[in-house]
Each structure stands twice: as structure tokens, then as C-alpha cells.
């Protein structure tokens, strides 16, 4: 189901809780909501649709990947950049890493480990920051 985008900075600054197998529908809602906002968005965190759970979706070119309880396990190559966010107006400066490795659970609740670099890594870092209440 397509959900409204939350723009309440107080809500967005709160830390999310671990996701469980019962939260799979939230992943599907993220898929629908990202699709509805495709022209201006490349990733989302569950708190952006009003749910404080550790779930994100990242556009990886041809596919969107939903990650439950994602965690960055390695990172290298820091750089400065500017980012925007569907929940905020304008752009802000931030530090990101060129290469990261992320562990997460997929829709089958199987643990995955994926190396990301460049733009895809930047999207994942932005969305994972949302889960800890960090807003660019």
C-alpha cells in the first residue's frame, strides 16, 4: 500500500526498533511507496512512512532491495557530498563511504551480506542513518 511520506523531524529523529518476521508487510509498503515516488526518490526507510522499524529499501538500478535490520559491517573511502531527502526540503552536506558491506535479512528471513559501492552505497548509508534517527 502506498503510504504518506512523514516530514515530522521529531518523529524522524527517533531511533527505530528491530524488525521481525511479522513486519514483512512494511517491506511491501516501502516497495509500493518507493514506486509511487520513483521520479524523486531512490530509497526509503520505514520511519519515512510512519513506522519505527529497522527496514529500508534501496534502488540498485534494475531492482529495489528491501533490507530488514540492515547493518554496515565494513566501510572504506570516506568523501564529502550533498544529499536531499523526500522528508526534508533542500540539500545538506554529509560524509559517506565509497565502499560498504551490509548485512541484513531478506523477505525469506535469510541473512544476506552484500558489498555496495558508489551511488548504491550512498543510498544505503542515507537510509540506514534514518534508522538511528540521524537526519542529514
Give the SSE map.
Blueprint: H1 9-12, H2 24-36, E1 43-45, E2 55-59, E3 64-84, E4 91-105, E5 111-117, H3 118-131
Antiparallel strand pairs: 1-2, 2-3, 3-4, 4-5
Folded structure, characterized:
There is one protein chain. By secondary structure, the chain is α+β, with helices and mostly antiparallel strands. It is 23% helix and 38% strand. It has 3 helices and 5 strands. It has helices at residues 9-12, 24-36, 118-131, and strands spanning 43-45, 55-59, 64-84, 91-105, 111-117. Strands 1-2-3-4-5 form a 5-stranded antiparallel sheet. The radius of gyration is 14 Å and the shape is globular. The model has no long low-confidence stretch (mean pLDDT 96).
What descriptive keywords fit this protein?
single chain; alpha+beta; 5-stranded antiparallel beta sheet; 23% helix
The proportion of residues forming helix, as a percent range, comes to: 10-25%
**Percent of sequence in beta strands:** 35-45%
* Number of E-type strands: 5
Order of helices and strands: HHEEEEEH
Q: Which stretches are low in confidence, meaning pLDDT under 50 for 5 or more residues running?
A: none
